């Protein structure tokens, strides 16, 4: 990957994985309360992630000056799995405890459905690193999946079956799409929440020759 970086960026303080998960859970819960439609929330999370990704491109290059310019999808997948995901999903203090905590509750009017996400802290599961592997190549090496084994967004979260259409980690897929587009690679990305991992499906579309993306409007 190659793009002129601004440099001189301050190293952010590490946030605890527990606080990160709770904060994100509260955000998704609030969006579900506002939109009451998981598909609309998916779209909003994707836009938020896209805009984050376009802004993180310079930061990533500043932190990973050794990363060479990518010329094909296999190199892109390698950088995402070994550099990008560990940089932004692994930069936490992992200190989990066995206890329970609910997502913020919001009183609703009579007859209205209450949408919430139950957040728990199981003793048997530790928060340890964020490995990502590449698999499921297809489309002539233009499609692949990133498998995240310990996704800090979902590590402490149980999404109710009634919200099965919610792509809880869609913000990650959006960030990957936005970051790559800022580096002139147009891709499509989506997320699949499996019982034991998070799968980000990435499909390469084209190399952008002209302007950088300005971000997606609401």
TrEMBL record:
Localisation: Endoplasmic reticulum; Golgi apparatus, cis-Golgi network
Pfam family, one: TRAPP
InterPro entries: Bet3 (IPR016721), NO_sig/Golgi_transp_ligand-bd (IPR024096), TRAPP_component (IPR007194)
Main location: endoplasmic reticulum
Entry keywords, A to Z: Endoplasmic reticulum, ER-Golgi transport, Golgi apparatus, Transport
PANTHER family on file: TRAFFICKING PROTEIN PARTICLE COMPLEX SUBUNIT 3
Homology family: Belongs to the TRAPP small subunits family. BET3 subfamily.
UniProt-recorded name of the protein: Trafficking protein particle complex subunit
Protein source organism: Ancylostoma ceylanicum
């Amino acid at each position: 990957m190659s793009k002129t970086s601004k440099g001189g960026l301050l190293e952010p303080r590490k946030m605890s994985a527990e606080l990160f998960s709770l904060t994100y859970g509260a955000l998704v819960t609030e969006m579900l309360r506002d939109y009451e439609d998981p598909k609309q929330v998916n779209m909003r999370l994707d836009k938020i992630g896209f805009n984050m990704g376009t802004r993180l491109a310079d930061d990533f290059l500043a932190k990973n000056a050794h990363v060479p310019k990518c010329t094909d999808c296999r190199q892109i997948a390698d950088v995402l799995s070994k550099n990008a995901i560990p940089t932004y999903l692994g930069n936490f203090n992992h200190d989990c405890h066995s206890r329970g905590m609910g997502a913020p509750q919001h009183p609703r009017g009579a007859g209205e459905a209450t949408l919430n996400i139950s957040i728990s802290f199981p003793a048997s599961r530790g928060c340890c690193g964020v490995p990502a592997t590449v698999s499921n190549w297809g489309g002539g090496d233009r499609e692949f999946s990133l498998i995240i084994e310990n996704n800090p967004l979902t590590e402490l979260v149980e999404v109710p079956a009634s919200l099965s259409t919610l792509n809880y980690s869609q913000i990650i897929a959006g960030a990957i799409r936005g970051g790559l587009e800022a580096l002139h690679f147009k891709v499509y990305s989506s997320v699949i929440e499996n019982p034991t991992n998070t799968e980000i499906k990435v499909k390469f579309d084209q190399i952008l020759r002209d302007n950088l993306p300005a971000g997606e409007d609401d």
